[in-house]
Amino acid sequence: MAEPAQEHPLKSFDHHSRKHSDYFEVYDKHFRAIRERKLNILEIGVQYGGSVEMWAKYFPYAHITGVDIDPMCKIHAGARVSIKIGDQSDRAFLSQFKNYDIIIDDGGHTMRQQIVTFEEMYDHVKDDGVYLCEDLHTSYWDEYGGGYKREGTFIEYSKNFIDSLNAWNSRDEQVLPVSKFTRATKSLHFYDSILVIEKGKRNKPTYYMTGTPTLTGV
Ligand SMILES: C[S@@+](CC[C@H](N)C(=O)[O-])C[C@H]1O[C@@H](n2cnc3c(N)ncnc32)[C@H](O)[C@@H]1O
53 in ligand 1 pocket by Cβ < 6 Å? Predict the structure, then answer.
């Protein structure tokens, strides 16, 4: 007899949440290996509480802090979930949040909110942690300050991360210097609408030689 279909652990929650269908696969890919750890997670954007509930189920030992500008979101606090009320584009408000394994930005999705939050919070992701920014499609929507290749969108801003990640290959340190980001970032994963940044301490790469060079065409 066929086994009863198991609900995906990232899709079985009671409170309402609306997520792009690809997100669940992305979450699982980046979070599966650390699921059972005692993590400290920050999510910006609580709304109806669906995602904080989902994270609490998916990460059985984690503490989740949800941030939202709407005071009503306080009702979603629980045993492993705290809720803080404030504006993600207020740098002074953000300064209270430190030392996270995972930060997820699913807040208001304007360019300013996403960029200020990244600028303030990236350093507060632990050395081997993950920073995830959702709903990057707003970078193409003018009502959020977006537009294709428009200066100041989060997509245009984050394209520069690719250069910073590669800065040890730069031949002009004035133009492309090695930065704190270069030294602290292991990889960038751009998906449709999501950017996942995996942190990891890095030093200047060295080249490892093996084997004996052979003459070809002789
Ligand atoms: C997309 S919803 C979050 C959905 C939730 N993460 C989920 O998946 O169930 C966006 C939330 O961001 C909040 N928000 C909008 N602007 C904000 C701001 N400036 N600072 C903090 N939260 C904000 C809204 O109140 C709303 O609840």
Answer: no
